[in-house]
Specification:
3 domains, Cathepsin D, subunit A, domain 1, six-stranded mixed barrel, mainly beta, 385 residues
């Protein structure tokens, strides 16, 4: 009998995997909005160039904060909150981030999620445990409004007025809007677009309002623009829900054409093969997403201006030591190298918590140069641009 056990075990794995897949499909297709002929308008908070909205789950009387994220395949609820609200675990799945980090997570059903006066019913959501180094809970602690909800309506994002509108009827598009056709997977609403860089078509880029950068593309694409001056960055400062991952970036200033918007911006090329268009570009427009026609409309509010990304940054190793989280070949510091001080200060002299660091680290780079002290006591002057 022993020789048959591996076969039986394999059959059990296939059956279990199929059941899990079917349950995920049922959750992703089961969500619906309980209104007709409506237009809902929500104010949003603009934190670290991300959209934060408030929602109530089930019978919870407290409004919770969530990142609004077209790039997230499904929504997420922070694990402790899910437990407090007694959200039922239905299945599990593997969740992947743009940084190339994978986690197996439980999936729960939210009976109702209230955005303003509009309720969304039977919504699937991943049960999310943030990594200790994740910046996401500092932006919105309760989770993510993902594309399995977003696909249920049409959307209008007004970055300038910080208003988010959604409706069961497509929004009116003004003349001279730029048009981006998109594709989306069957079970979610994550929009993938095509655009041009220096006249060359680049495909399958995630239209990602959950990304606070500009345009980032896979490193293989960079070889098409060899005659352009480039900047190399070694990075471990970009944080997602599961923390940071080491990346090598090549930055080139190139002309891009996004649905007819032609502009010259710094384009990042990632060794982690990211392909994202984010808020640093999109915030210059009113964005309308029509899920019937699968078109995104960009209504320009201001000229697109994106700064070249900095070549140096630091993170907190502990209360008294810094660690290099971003560097470049011309800077005589290695990624992950420990530092005694930055501008004569230790981390606990500038920030009272991890989230204080996440929200306010930018203030450290508002001057032209930083003075860092290495572990051997020597000092370096490092430009911040």
């Amino acid at each position: 009998m022993t020789r048959y056990r591996p076969i039986m075990f394999l059959v059990w794995l296939i059956v279990a995997s199929s059941c899990s897949y079917l349950k995920n499909v049922q959750l992703l297709t089961g969500g619906h909005i309980g209104r007709k002929n409506y237009v809902q308008t929500l104010p949003f908070e603009w934190r670290k160039e991300l959209i934060v909205v408030k929602a109530r789950l089930n019978s919870d009387t407290t409004q919770r904060e969530f990142i609004f994220d077209t790039g997230a395949f499904n929504s997420k609820v922070e694990s402790d909150l899910a437990n407090v609200l007694g959200l039922k675990v239905v299945t599990e799945k593997t969740n992947s981030t743009a940084s190339g980090i994978n986690r197996k997570i439980e999936v729960v059903r939210i009976d109702s999620l209230l955005l303003g006066e509009t309720a969304i019913y039977s919504l699937g959501a991943g049960k999310l445990t943030y990594a200790p180094t994740s910046a996401s809970p500092c932006i919105a602690a309760s989770g993510i409004i993902g594309a399995n909800l977003i696909k249920l309506a049409h959307w209008k994002i007004d970055y300038e007025k910080q208003l988010l509108h959604f409706s069961d009827t497509p929004f009116k598009v003004v003349e001279r809007s730029y048009v981006l056709p998109f594709e989306r997977p069957l079970l979610s609403g994550t929009p993938s677009i095509n655009l041009e860089v220096e006249g060359k078509k680049v495909e399958n880029i995630l239209f990602d309002v959950g990304y606070n950068g500009g345009l980032i593309l896979p490193i293989a694409v960079a070889s098409h623009f060899e005659n352009t001056e480039s900047k190399i960055i070694l990075d471990q400062s970009t944080s997602g829900i599961y923390g940071t991952n080491t990346d090598s970036l090549l930055v080139k200033k190139l002309e891009v054409n996004v649905g007819g918007v032609k502009t010259r911006i710094p384009v990042e090329f990632s060794s982690l093969n990211k392909a994202l268009l984010g808020n640093e570009f999109l915030k210059h427009f009113v964005v309308i997403i029509n899920y019937d026609t699968k078109k995104i409309y960009l209504q320009k509010q201001q000229e697109v201006r994106i700064a070249t990304p900095p070549g140096f940054s630091v993170a907190i190793q502990n209360d008294s030591l810094w660690v290099v989280s971003r560097t470049a070949p011309e800077i005589p510091l290695n990624l992950g190298e420990t530092l005694l001080s930055v501008n004569g200060k230790k981390p606990n002299e500038l920030f009272i918590s991890h989230c204080d660091y996440v929200i306010n680290i930018g203030k450290l780079f508002e001057q032209d140069r930083l003075v860092v002290q290495k572990m051997d006591g020597s000092f370096l002057n490092i430009p911040t641009e």
